Amino acid sequence: MASWQEFEEQAPELAGVARRQMDAYRHKVLATLRKDGSPRVSGTETSFRDGELWTGSMLGAVKALDLRRDPRMAIHVTARDPEEADPSSWEGDVKLAGRAVEVADEGGVPSPDSHLFRIEVTEVVWTRVEGDELVIDTWHEGAGLRRIRRK
Looking at the whole model, is its pTM more than 0.85? Predict the structure, then answer.
């Protein structure tokens, strides 16, 4: 698993786009796995600090319990709709996947009223429209960066 900083070092342009999108939109969608393996989506917020990507939740929230049981997760950042006449004006969507590792707060003490998770990144995807093509930039840990174009 890669820290956000390690991802930035391996794919700086994609990391810059992903970070701008994540910073521009406060609310994101977090996907976790329930006990039975079915997906759960929840709203979440993220932050960047010390080369790491962080998310949290209120104490006992089902998304936190999901992550404690199975740390695999994904985050989806949506963007505003493009101008109808110009699909290329769409900023695109950013998705990332990885594992959420619960940690103590900044003082090294578990918080009595919330959960804090550091995100270890395994995949980042930016999907957008350029002209008449769908363009997908993907980074996978160990495989590097790839661009896919579809008409």
Answer: yes
